[in-house]
């Protein structure tokens, strides 16, 4: 049975007042938002108010909006959109040159005892029924990825960790966390049974997922983003929402 949840298979429509409450900074060039974990970045078939890009375009009466930094739907935190081509080009050039620093917060399964760094190549997993699933690869295949994990505190049997990726590969943090045997809580692809993801995209948040997975979205948050060029620099921060979403209470209710 499907359970009514903002983290369902189909994202809820964004309300104009919600969008305004997510805006952290806005100028003639950019708009920066603190995206919740149930919001899709890219336009979808359900109309403009079903995605962050569509909602901003409608709210500001723009013909086009440029998604400069994106997050997976279930990852919350800092997202930058550019209002015109020149701003988009400058920001995209900075990202391509890796003139960026990114800091995430993640709630990981188990106790991460010490800081760990994972460096590997990543590639699409051809053996998985989940078509978007990535995996650590060997033999020179895939693209290089480097991720640093640092434990901050324990929430019950789990770890609130700071994560700093030095590359931007698809699902990088989630794949590397699982490789360390400390997957991101709520991750429907990498935290356990891949059938969780297949069930979710078919039926939304179900009784079985609530019972077995417990966390309705992956506990991953883009907390800080710094990006710079030759004569400019932006720094943005979004507060961690895990406690407000009840994740600390849920984590501390579990036994080690």
Automatic annotation (TrEMBL):
Q: Which InterPro entries match?
A: PsdUridine_synth_cat_dom_sf (IPR020103), PsdUridine_synth_RsuA/RluA (IPR006145), RluA_PseudoU_synthase (IPR050188)
Q: Which GO terms describe its biological process?
A: enzyme-directed rRNA pseudouridine synthesis
Domain Pseudouridine synthase RsuA/RluA-like, chain residue ranges per copy: 29-178
One short Pfam name that applies is PseudoU_synth_2
* GO MF annotation list: catalytic activity, acting on RNA; pseudouridine synthase activity; RNA binding
Q: In terms of domain of life, where is this protein from?
A: Bacteria
Q: Which family does it belong to?
A: Belongs to the pseudouridine synthase RluA family.
Which PANTHER family does the annotation name? MITOCHONDRIAL RNA PSEUDOURIDINE SYNTHASE, RIBOSOMAL LARGE SUBUNIT PSEUDOURIDINE SYNTHASE D
Q: What is this protein called?
A: RNA pseudouridine synthase
Query: What's the source species for this entry?
Result: Oceanipulchritudo coccoides
Q: Name the lineage.
A: Bacteria, Pseudomonadati, Verrucomicrobiota, Opitutia, Puniceicoccales
């Amino acid at each position: 049975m499907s359970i009514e949840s903002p983290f369902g298979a189909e994202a809820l429509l964004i309300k104009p007042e919600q969008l305004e409450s997510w805006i952290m900074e806005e100028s003639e060039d950019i708009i920066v938002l603190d995206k919740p974990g149930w919001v899709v970045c890219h336009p979808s078939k359900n109309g403009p108010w079903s995605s962050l890009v569509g909602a901003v375009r409608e709210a500001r009466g723009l013909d086009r909006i440029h998604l400069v930094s994106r997050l997976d739907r279930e990852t919350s935190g800092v997202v930058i959109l550019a209002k015109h081509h020149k701003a988009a080009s400058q920001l995209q050039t900075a990202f391509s040159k890796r003139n960026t620093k990114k800091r995430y917060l993640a709630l990981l399964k188990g106790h991460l005892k010490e800081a760990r760094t994972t460096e590997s190549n990543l590639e699409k997993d051809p053996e998985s029924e989940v078509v978007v699933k990535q995996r650590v690869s060997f033999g020179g295949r895939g693209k290089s990825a480097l991720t640093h994990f640092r434990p901050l505190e324990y929430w019950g049997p789990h770890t609130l960790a700071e994560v700093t990726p030095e590359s931007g590969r698809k699902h990088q943090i989630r794949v590397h966390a699982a490789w360390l045997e400390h997957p991101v809580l709520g991750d429907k692809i990498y935290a356990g049974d891949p059938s969780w993801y297949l069930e979710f995209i078919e039926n939304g948040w179900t009784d079985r997922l609530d019972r077995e997975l417990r966390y309705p979205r992956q506990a991953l948050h883009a907390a800080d983003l710094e990006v710079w060029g030759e004569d400019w620099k932006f720094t943005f921060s979004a507060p961690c929402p895990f406690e407000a979403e009840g994740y600390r209470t849920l984590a501390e209710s579990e036994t080690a």
